[in-house]
Amino acid sequence: MRRSAAVSLGSALLSLTLAASTPPELFQRAKTQFRLRSYAAALTTLDQLSRDSQDPGNAAYRTALGPSLAFYRGACLAALGRMEEARSEFEVYLVFQPSAVLDPAIYPKSVIQALADARRGLARKRETPEASGSVAAAYRAFARPDPAKRENLGEDWAAGPVRFLLSADEKRDFQRLSDPLSRSEYIANFWKSHDPRPETFENELREEFEKRVAFADAHFGQDEVRGALTDRGMVFLLLGAPTYIGRRPITTGEDTSDPAGMSRFTRNDVVTAQAGLDPRASGPVVDRMTGPTNKLPDAAVNWREFWHYRREVLPKGVPYQQVDFEFITRRGYGKNVLQREDAPLSALEAARKALLDRSAWWQATR
């Protein structure tokens, strides 16, 4: 009876201690428990860390903790023999750190094996885009908007998604129109002049463009900006779905200092390693503890997203085997900002011309 009461009291005290800790403190505790091979206890701490990170006051840590939580969850689960769950966690981690390598002197064999299995699993998924939920597959399954429910466009038409198709002269001409009837006629004539098959009832270009607009609005919106008006939306409207998309965080070592406690090793860890090792052997170990792989990505605010378009989906006027579009998300810089380089910009202009060339567009989509 007395022992049961003591256990209950100990559990209660542990819960209060965990609840009172900050995310960095909980993270350090979980790492310490992992190093002491208290894997079940580390999982309990990580669960508490995950719950606490959802609190409004911990918003700065919420997404930044994602990679570290996945890594240590995967490591603990693998060490406990729960390999399938471990592989799932490591797949999440590898999205952030695709080239991660573990030191066999530090991590159990089961942890290293689970990471290798997760890497192979991700490679298989990339070979089958449909199975991994690619943008191209999602777009094919996306319902085409009903032309009968098309919104009435007014004086803001040229400032909307169609602006990526209009020339500078066309924008000025439309802005000079002062009444709804003339604007409506201008819009109708614009689409009619670019109808790839005038003999049919449908305007295939307009319907395809409006489907891309609806898809971009549904998937690429940012804060108060509709998806079709973002940089990613612009690229999607002009080029369609990319062959594949890659994404990785901009790590703290590249652009900004990481939140306190978000390194895998503390300063005390490094000092201890330096003091306890032969000076001739300490260099590589300390390098591992202080180098780039010790930094966790500040995934909450810093991203690089790459859209890769291979030759078969590029317009004929583009002289490249592949064009890569890079979008940067960084605190103080913006969200998914397209990097204006020569090859991507020339590809966008070629795509705009190809869309408006009635015969070229129809031949490319048959």
Task: Count all strands and give the number.
Answer: 4
Calculate Rg over CA atoms. 27 Å
What overall form do the CA principal axes indicate?
elongated
Number of domains: 2
Helical content band: 40-55%
Question: Uncertain spans, ≥5 residues at pLDDT below 50?
Answer: 1-19, 128-133, 255-266, 277-283, 289-300
Distance linking N and C termini: 79 Å
Portion in strands: 5-15%
| Helix and strand composition category | alpha+beta
**N-to-C series of helices and strands:** HHHHHHHHHHHHEHHHEEEHH
Largest sheet: 4 strands, antiparallel
Count of helical stretches: 17
Strand adjacency order, main sheet: 1-2-3-4
Mean pLDDT: 78
Overall description:
It is a single chain. Helix 3 runs antiparallel to helix 5, helix 5 packs antiparallel against helix 6 and helix 11 (204-219) runs antiparallel to helix 12. The longest helix is centred in the first third of the chain and has 19 residues, at 2-20. The chain folds into 2 domains: 14-127, Serine Threonine Protein Phosphatase 5, Tetratricopeptide repeat; 135-248 and 300-365, no CATH class. 55% of the residues lie in helices and 8% in strands. It has 366 residues and is α+β, with helices and mostly antiparallel strands.
